[in-house]
Design brief:
This protein is of the alpha+beta class. It folds into 3 domains: 11-182; 232-327, Helix Hairpins, CATH 1.10.287.130; 328-477, Histidine kinase-like ATPase, C-terminal domain (Heat Shock Protein 90), CATH 3.30.565.10. Helices cover 49% and strands 20% of the residues. The protein has 10 helices and 14 strands. It has helices at 8-59, 119-127, 177-229, 244-293, 300-324, 336-345, 367-384, 432-435, 440-450, 474-477; strands at 77-81, 86-89, 93-97, 132-133, 138-146, 149-162, 166-175, 332-335, 353-358, 362-365, 388-396, 399-406, 454-459, 465-472. The strands form 3 sheets. Strands 1, 2, 3, 4, 5, 6 and 7 form a 7-stranded antiparallel beta sheet that branches. It has a 5-stranded mixed beta sheet with strand order 9-11-12-14-13. Helix 1 runs antiparallel to helix 3 (177-229), helix 5 packs parallel to helix 9 (440-450) and helix 7 runs antiparallel to helix 9 (440-450). Residues 109-129 and 428-434 have low confidence and may be disordered.
């Protein structure tokens, strides 16, 4: 059962059915109440009309025994005085409840003023005040048994004030048989129709949700196949719609594309790193083996250079791994002009002259990572410069700018993006020792991106390459 209702389709069907059921119950109850109220009001109208007809006869002075009463089974009638004594009642009335008295047989009356049989009474009635009938009637529910048949009624009580008979009350009943029949018929129809309607709603909801969720099932099946095959080149089917499921499919494919790119990049990175590490390790091993066999032939300087290359390559790989893991740069305030001064003071092996044009430009980030970017850009410029390297810092609105240019051959326009890829070198004719491992510019761009900035290359005024690092100032970085 829990597995069944773990399905979105089952929950949607159940939810829709419950909502419709509640709506049907509420609507059915409202219809029944309205129907009952309407029919009860009609019964009260019939009872009131019958009671006033009898009251009019009493007001006219008609004797109790000569009252023209309505048919008993439709409108049972009682006439009582202010002492709740029964003065007149419908014929064949056997039992009654819900009125002023349960008596069904009028009390014995003597001839005279009260019975209205003599001419003297009529003359007295003509001379007396005609009396009045109360405009308002009171209603009550009860039952009556007429000629052996019991039925429910709505009784109207109408008061009549007469001069010669005193205050009288006429009770007349309006049958509720129509109300009971109509309510029973409506209730039976609802009890039969509501389950059928619920079944239709549940079936339609089940089919509609099945059709709506069919793309989700296809996406799930394809994702399971991708997981089993580990083939990230596959994509989930995108439905030709503009709903949430279509957006889910597109987002899933975008995620798969990003994951495929990341995995392929990681594989290339591991392969290239292994290739780059193999050369210095093999060279160092060869030198050490030769030194072990012939100590006089040990190239200590070469071994040290290979060790330094391994150390630098390991540091670059470690930094790239931290950047790929999403390491945050921090929030220290760094003045690029001061950073350039410190970096240049520690460099002793540069072959080309370095000129500076430094203006204060503050950024927020990691001082060590920004120093690595500057060092990599300077190393790249020294590698390609003929005689001069220029370093400049300035502020450009809310941005801090660092520029490193050289007077070398520059970078061809078609290669200006490729040089930022990992392990890419355009100077393949050079030796590996001179050309580096091809990680410096990749690290520089990754650090720039982590700091919310950019690193681009264009042609320098001197004809060489100009690398421009743009980073947001502290105010922008805090947003």
């Amino acid at each position: 059962m829990s597995r069944l209702f773990g399905s979105v389709r089952a929950r949607a069907t159940l939810g829709a059915s419950l909502v419709v059921a509640l709506a049907l119950v509420a609507a059915g109850a409202a219809v029944l109440l309205a129907l009952r109220a309407n029919l009860t009001a009609q019964a009260e109208g019939r009872a009131d009309s019958a009671a006033r007809e009898v009251a009019t006869q009493l007001l006219a002075g008609r004797p109790y025994a000569e009252l023209d009463l309505p048919e008993e089974d439709e409108n049972p009638v009682q006439v009582v005085d202010d002492q709740s004594r029964l003065l007149a009642a419908s014929e064949d009335l056997e039992r009654i409840s819900g009125t002023g008295t349960a008596e069904v047989e009028p009390a014995a009356r003597s001839r005279g003023v009260g019975d209205g049989n003599g001419q003297d009474q009529r003359d007295a009635g003509e001379a007396s005040e005609p009396g009045e009938i109360d405009d308002d009637a009171e209603y009550s529910s009860g039952s009556a048994t007429v000629d052996g048949e019991r039925a429910d009624y709505r009784f109207a009580a109408v008061e009549v004030s007469t001069e010669d008979r005193g205050d009288l009350t006429v009770y007349a009943g309006g049958s509720l048989a129509d109300e009971k029949s109509a309510v029973s018929t409506a209730l039976t129809s609802m009890l039969i129709g509501f389950p059928l309607l619920l079944a239709v709603v549940a079936g339609v909801t089940w089919l509609v949700t099945r059709r709506a969720l069919r793309p989700v099932a296809a996406i799930t099946a394809e994702m399971s196949a991708i997981t089993a095959s580990e083939d990230l080149a596959r994509r989930v089917p995108e439905p030709d719609t503009h709903d949430e499921i279509a957006r889910l499919a597109r987002t899933t494919n975008e995620t798969l594309t990003a994951l495929q790119t990341s995995v392929e990049r990681q594989r290339r990175f591991v392969a290239d790193a292994s290739h780059e590490l193999r050369s210095p390790i093999a060279s160092l091993r060869t030198q050490l083996e030769v030194g072990a066999a012939h100590p006089a032939l040990l190239d200590v300087e070469g071994a040290v250079e290979d060790t330094v290359r391994l150390q630098e390559l390991a540091a670059d790989l470690l930094l790239l791994a931290r950047l790929d893991a999403g390491e945050k740069p921090g929030g220290a305030r760094v003045d690029l002009a001061a950073l350039v001064g410190e970096e240049l003071s520690q460099r002793t092996r540069d072959r080309a002259e370095v000129r500076t044009e430094l203006r204060s430009a503050e950024v927020s980030g990691s001082r060590s990572q920004l120093a690595r970017v500057l060092g990599n850009l300077l190393n790249n410029a020294q590698r390609h410069a003929r005689s001069r390297v220029t370093v400049a810092t300035r502020s450009d609105g809310a941005w801090a700018v660092l520029e490193v240019s050289d007077d070398g051959e520059g970078v061809p326009p078609g290669e200006r993006e490729r040089i930022f890829e990992r392990f890419v070198r355009l100077d393949d004719a050079r030796t590996r020792d001179e050309g580096g491992a091809g990680l410096g510019l990749a690290i520089a761009r990754d650090v720039a991106a982590r700091h919310g900035g950019t690193l681009m290359v264009r042609e320098a005024p001197s004809g060489g390459a100009l690398f421009e690092l743009r980073l947001p100032g502290p105010a922008v970085a805090r947003r």
